[in-house]
């Protein structure tokens, strides 16, 4: 394997650790729970999005996180119609933890972290395909969404 390929792997591993560390720090949780929250939100979001929209969104993710996004993906079965509460319940179920977790807070933190790492406006592109009651899960914007 060439040095360049190893640099790609090093880079994506570093970016993945940065995302997990940011979620852990901002949500006052451990790195393991932060990883589980990132995985849970990404995969629940993926299943809620139409396949084409999921592909566009995932292209913006670091390579390793994109792998987490697509782990267990079944494109023939999407999009799954989930209410906001069903979305949060799926996130809650995917976070395997000995203690109870606040799925709402962790979901908001994961979206906020993603927004900080992705190119400006990338998270906004999924807003059009999500129901309006999902908007409070996403980082607040300076412009009101109608």
Question: Which helices and strands occur, and which strands form pairs?
Answer:
Layout: H1 3-27, H2 31-48, H3 51-58, H4 63-70, H5 84-94, H6 103-117
Helix pairs in contact: 1-2, 1-6, 2-4, 2-5, 2-6
Brief description of this entry?
With 146 residues, the protein is mostly helical. Helix content is 58%, strand content 0%. It has one domain: Globin-like (Orthogonal Bundle), CATH 1.10.490.
The gross shape turns out to be globular
CATH fold-level assignment? Globin-like
Q: Going by CATH, what is the homologous superfamily?
A: Uncharacterized conserved protein DUF2267
Indicate the percent of residues in helices.
55-70%
Describe this structure in words.
By secondary structure, the protein is mainly α. It has one domain (3-127): Uncharacterized conserved protein DUF2267 (Globin-like), CATH 1.10.490. It is built from six helices and no strands. Helix 2 (31-48) packs across helix 6.
What are the main properties of this structure?
146 residues, mainly alpha
């Amino acid at each position: 394997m060439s040095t360049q390929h190893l640099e790609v792997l090093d880079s994506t591993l570093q970016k993945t650790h940065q995302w997990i560390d940011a979620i852990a720090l901002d949500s006052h949780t451990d790195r393991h729970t932060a990883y589980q929250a990132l995985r849970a939100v990404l995969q629940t979001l993926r299943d809620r999005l139409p396949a084409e929209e999921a592909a566009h969104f995932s292209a913006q993710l670091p390579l390793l996180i994109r792998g987490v996004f697509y782990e267990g993906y079944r494109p023939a079965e999407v999009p799954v119609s989930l209410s906001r509460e069903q979305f949060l319940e799926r996130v809650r179920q995917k976070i395997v933890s000995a203690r109870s977790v606040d799925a709402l807070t962790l979901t908001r933190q994961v979206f906020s972290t993603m927004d900080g790492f992705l190119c400006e406006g990338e998270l906004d592109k999924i807003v059009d395909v999500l129901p309006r009651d999902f908007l409070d899960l996403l980082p607040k914007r300076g412009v009101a969404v109608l």
